[in-house]
Amino acid sequence: MPAALILSGPEQVASWIGENVRWRRASTRFHDITRLWPHLSTKLCDYFDALADYDEQDYQRIKDVLAWIEKNPRSNLYPRQIPIAGLDTKWLETRTRLITDLVADLQHDSSNHLNFFQRCGLKESPGLVRLRLLDPSLGKCTGGLLDLTCPVEEIAALKLPASKVYLVENLQTGLAFNELSGAIVVTGLGFGVTLVSQIPWISSAECIYWGDIDTYGFAILSLARKCLPEMRSVLMDEATLISHRTLWGQEAEQYPASELPLLTDSENGVYRALKQQQWGRNVRLEQERIAWDYAWDVIRHTTN
Questions:
Q1: How distant, in Å, are the alpha carbons of 187, 195, 259, 284 from that of 126?
Q2: Taking the domain 128-300, which CATH number applies?
Q3: Pairing of β 128-133 and β 164-168
Q4: Nearest to 101 by CA among 47, 50, 54
Q5: Which one of 72, 261, 275, 297 is most buried, by most CB atoms within 10 A?
Q6: Where in the chain is the domain with CATH 3.40.1360?
Q7: From CA 67, how far away is CA 73, in angstroms rounded?
């Protein structure tokens, strides 16, 4: 019986495991790119699948992007303004990590504190915030407009004298809010909730967060507390979840963190129970499922 298998190099290994076609393609492309940019030889090793599996158009587009950014490191253009055929938002969204890593090596900068736009010298689309003024008297500050979607800088400049600010995870729930004295609702930010850190006047108000009772809802709540440490949550407790059992859905997958440090003890109790499947597999209660008369009664009576 054979005692050992001796393979003389990666080509033979690839052939033995049935990957010789992918290996040849990746190897050819590796040498093609490192001929142009020798400094990328180490980083490219992390992207074997991209080298092996991208079709010719995608592979050429990666090279074109690297070459263009090398020549235009601080263009301050939006990505769609880059004059490269086939370069659109969807294409970039699935390749930002690859491009960011390779551009960092082109720039001989191993630090990872820059995001894709900063690293590539590109302009990021302005962060838009949608808010509704639930108190018509606040419309004096906005020319009578009560429903606004604006860049965050313009929202910050409004300096609204709101006494209460609701941050609501889902757009349609925020649209359902009725009139409420001194209040506004900011809606639909999801994980973009950190934009509120650029709106100083919000921190002067009583801030309340309402999201889905699922692991991602609690993750967004924890993230929001980085900007607004005193913020309270509403309708994200065990009693609300249990009393709406017939309306439960299921998360496709759960948020990966085992703990969320900025949750309160009671919030963390619900989060841990969801993670531990205490009530069933990947249980979730979307905020829209809660009967509106019940939810609104709770919301309008929230106060310190």
A1: 17, 10, 32, 32
A2: 3.40.1360
A3: unpaired
A4: 47
A5: 275
A6: 128-300
A7: 10
The structure's pTM equals: 0.71
| Tokens 């209040």, located at residue | 183
Beta bridge partners of 285: 213
Helix (H, G, I), strand (E, B) or coil at 227: helix
Structure tokens at 225: 């507390």
Give SS3 for 279. coil
Nearest CA to 186 out of 233, 129, 234 is that of 129
Cα separation, 290 vs 205, in Å, equals 26
Q: What is the three-class DSSP state of 18?
A: coil
What are the tens digits of pLDDT across the range 85-137? 888 888 888 899 999 999 999 998 877 778 899 999 999 888 899 999 999 99
Q: Which of 288, 92, 2 is nearest to 172 (CA)?
A: 288
Sign, Cα dihedral of 60, 64, 67, 69: negative
List pLDDT tens digits, range 148-204.
999 999 999 999 999 999 999 999 999 999 999 999 999 999 888 999 999 999 999
What residues contact 219, with CB distance under 8 A and at least 6 apart? 191, 255, 257, 260
